[in-house]
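Notes to self, 8-oxo-dGTP pyrophosphatase MutT (NUDIX family):
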Amino acid sequence: MYKVSIKALLPAPDGRIVLLLNEREEWELPGGQIELGETPPACLAREIAEELGLQVAVEAPLDSYLFEVIPGRHVFIVTYRARLTGPFEPRLSHEHRRWALFAPAALPANLPQGYRASILRGLQAGSPENS
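result:
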């Protein structure tokens, strides 16, 4: 049985992507482990509020895949689009080392491939020619 983690492609008002630096020194999308009885959108809204103090609306699912976090430890990742519903005033929780904004064309090297693929999929799905 794998843990399930719900993650968000969350653009800042300027279009850059919100990423969090974890304890493994990898950038990741905001979000986290779903709790028993919780829906994925409720999980994501809760996790983003906890991690960044931001309010969001969760939109369409983008992607899902099995991710090997460390050798022998896998997590099932489900990514969604999310959009801000309140001000963009991030407050970092104790769960991450820092947050940062990255232009889609300048994502960090230490961003796992699955997150990178979800970001690209979400940006393509949100482009005017695909709407």
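- The first helix runs from residue 40 to 52.
- The first strand starts at residue 3 and ends at 9.
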